[in-house]
Amino acid sequence: MDAVKSKRMPRAVREQQMMDAAVQIFGQRGYRAASMDEIAELAGVSKPLVYLYLNSKEELFTACIRREAKALVDAVQAGVEPGLPADRQLWEGLRAFFLHTAENPDGWAVLHRQARTHGEPFASEITTMRDEIVAFVTGLIGAAAREAHHDPALPDRDVAGLAQALVGAAEALAGWANDTPGVSAREAAATLMNFSWAGLENLMNGRPWQPPV
Q: How far is CA 13 from CA 6, 42, 79, 127, 153, in A?
């Protein structure tokens, strides 16, 4: 009976099952060290079936990157409730980011460690994901500036630079939090919020730090 059910499993469900296994193997062993045999065994299917569905190791890894990237972007965007004060929106976005990366450590390892270190076409996939998150954070910071000023004083270039810095810090902190026992997603988000918000608030209120002459 189990064999019959397995054979009748919809293609999309079977494919996601394979990708679940692939993310775990890629995340824990790395792209180069991972084998299609291991992925097939963990997924409970034959290696030829993995190739039939996903063509090659490179295409399977690319599909994993795209799936994990979309899940992360969706989680961050869904975590922010429109209409909240600017600091609450930023806090909720950061908390959603750290919660997702903590709950999906293999997926985060695929995105943050594996895909970045193996060149194209993987690097382009990560750039696309990062651009989406930076654009979203840029919007949050821009909204905060509009909240602080009826006529926002922050140039677009400054807002974009702040978003890049914040996203970069979040990426680094997520890697540290996942590798450090006892660090919760809430703690990681609070750490970055305390690090960033005081500076952002001062800047938006016309009190930027100035380098010495």
A: 10, 15, 26, 28, 50
- Name residue 153's amino acid: A
Distance CA 167, CA 187 (A): 17
Which amino acid appears at position 120 of this protein? E
Is the distance from CB of 200 to CB of 144 less than 8 angstroms? yes
Its pTM stands at 0.85
Residues in the chain: 213
| 8 A C-beta contact, residue 178 and residue 102 | yes
Cα-Cα-Cα-Cα torsion 134, 162, 180, 112, nearest 10 degrees, comes to 30
Interval 52-78: pLDDT, tens: 998 899 999 999 999 999 999 999 999
Give CA 180 to chain center in angstroms. Answer: 18
Question: Dihedrals φ, ψ of 150, to 5°?
Answer: -65, -35
| Separation between Cα atoms, residue 30 and residue 117, nearest integer Å | 10
CA distance 43 to 32: 19
User: Pick from 152, 151, 157, 165: which is nearest to 195 by CA?
Assistant: 165
56: helix, coil or strand?
Answer: coil
Q: What is the pLDDT of residue 1?
A: 40
Look up residue 113 and give its DSSP letter: I
pLDDT at residue number 135: 92
Nearest to 192 by CA among 175, 213, 209: 175
Nearest to 199 by CA among 149, 146, 152, 141: 141
